[in-house]
Amino acid sequence: MPVVDGKRRFGPFELDARTGELRTDGTRVKLQGQPISVLEILLETPGELVTREQIRERLWSSNTFVDFDQNLNSAIRKLRHALGDEAETPRYIETIPRYGYRFIGQVEKDAAPEAAEEMLAGTTTVANGRIAAGTRASRLRGILPWALGGVAVLLGAVATWLLKPQPQQNAVTFLVAPPENAELYDGGEISLSPDGRTLAFVARSGPDKPRFLWVRPLDRLTAQPIPGTEDASLPFWAPDNQYIGFSAEGTLKKVAVGGGMPQMICRLTGPGATATWSRDGVILFSSLQGSLYRVPDTGGTPALLRAPDPARHEGPYGFPQFLPDGRHFLLYAATADTESERFIAVGSLDSKSVKNLARATSYALYAPPGLLLYFDQNALMARPFDWKALRFTGASVPVAENVGTGTGFGWFSVSATGVLAYAPWLSEANNQMAWFSRTGQKLGTLGPPGRYIDPALSPDGTRVAVGAAISGNRDIWVFDTRRGTASRLTFGTSNSGNAAWTADGNRILFSSNRNGQVDIYQKDADGLGSTQPVYESKDQAKALDDLSADGRYAIFDNMGSSDSKQLWVLPLFGERKPYVFVQGVFGALSARFSPNGRYVAYASNETGKLEVYVQTFPQPTGKWEISTSGGAEPMWRRDGKELFYLTLDQKLMAVDVNTAAPGFQAGIPKELFQAQLMPIAYWRNFYVASPDGQRFLMVVPANDTRPAPITVVVNWPALLKK
Fold this sequence. Notes:
The chain is mostly beta strands. It folds into four domains: 7-109, Winged helix-like DNA-binding domain superfamily/Winged helix DNA-binding domain (Arc Repressor Mutant, subunit A, Orthogonal Bundle); 122-161, no CATH class; 172-424, 6 Propeller (Neuraminidase); 431-701, Neuraminidase (6 Propeller). The strands form 15 sheets. The chain has a five-stranded antiparallel β-sheet with strand order 4-3-2-1-8, with helices on one face. Strands 12, 13, 14, 15 and 16 form a five-stranded antiparallel β-sheet that branches. Strand 48 and strand 49 form a beta hairpin. The chain is elongated and about 95 Å long.
């Protein structure tokens, strides 16, 4: 069963696929049957994993009743014996435990003659420019059945060729449109299977519909949703191409591509996790707070591998990606002092050390034959990289331009077989501020579509201070809710956000990295005058959450630099020395003072799931859990008689509370409506409540920003030659 054209040479051996003979130094090796067939299959894609299932499909049909495992193990033993190879110290055939095998020797290939030319030259009789009539009919009778059956084979072969690396060919580019009446989620959370044959992505059929995980085989015209994957995000593939991992409902899950319901791998500390899956059955993921965990792909309790150390100015880690050895991995790392310092980094399962490789604005992926891909502004770049030495070996070159967000980030994926996929360019206007009633009815919008986060409503409800990204920088803008006008409060090349109003509405406090580290500043709300520092230090980053109504205290979190993300109270009088208000090995964020200043509501994952709590202030003498099945982003009604929050599946909840009684009292949470926000919990808040609690300003996906199709490039390294 020859499956390889021509001859393949490795070490002292030569395999002739036409005759099925293996020779060494001209002498034929006594090897035939299944061992030779297995060798032919492995030599088709040297250096790549060939699963046991793939070998079974090639050598044993589904209706053949044999002990497949015993037969394959016997064939591998005979093959190794003939090659003088050993399983423990392989020179040619490496065993990938639980998955399959990989040929690791250096292979040379002879070019094979073109089969079509051979057939035409050897079988066609030509007379006076025509096929001889006497032979034509008989030949057609012999060829026609083969040809008709071959049409289907040819179509399949074309698809196979398209999805197979073509080193000597040009790159082939095509588009994959979102499913009909659907849109890509978050601009395009996409992931290619390791063999480059299937694209997974997250999409939903409308802003008010749940998102699902979809798969699109690239040799087919349509994509299909995977049942049971509601609220999926951040997909990643198993090395054998048979499973897809994803985050959903505060858990990490996996689902078989061939069918079946998803299985839970472990619980998460937040709504999502970026993850990677090794050939050794290890899943490595980053938590919401930026720590790295490992867990078996069969499921279990995650083990902490590495938490960023604020004392070393280490910020959160994200987007881990295993390198070919399955032990080392790439990371997207940040510093604790400033949001603008981000790096491509590398770590190892065998060490807690992390090494920064280069500054970057996005995560990086490794692709054979030795390149790292990452975004630089609105361009996708490739840079030569030696994964064994863990160092760059050359300068970066562009692969594609006008892609990503334009702020240096974007979604892309690459296979080990030369297939690349990337999401389209996203304009700055991908979300919208909109008003909703208590029943979820949309009442109107505020301002044009943009990129907004962390809105803050003035005490009288007439102005909104919000972070807005423009040309890559995030500044504070103030919108007038009555007139619909807007003015810019902060300027410069720094990032500013987390606005909070003083009780009189005259000043706005906010966080900014204008001096390197993230500190707290203030400015008059009318934009006049200069920006003044409120609290500066190099000890930690300071993401402002709220101000007390009496103006005496601010509360902030340390931006998730580790899983010990804490809430700190900053007195705005005296020495202004902050102290820890909520601490522990869990994360805490989105803190809000009650209107009378006696309590603080916040979200914490101390139980393994993000929940909303209320704690007494200024002394933490009492604490109450408010949410019952996950919650984030608490908001008080201005009179202190109601507390709002979001569930992890974005339902807006309301709880009757009593903050005036000697002891805090809370009722049963009631659902108001299903919100459709940008992803919650990654920032401070994506909604605010009007003073009377009858309206809600929410940051929702813009209706007119349906993403363009995903771009797929087969044999993408050929682009580098241009």
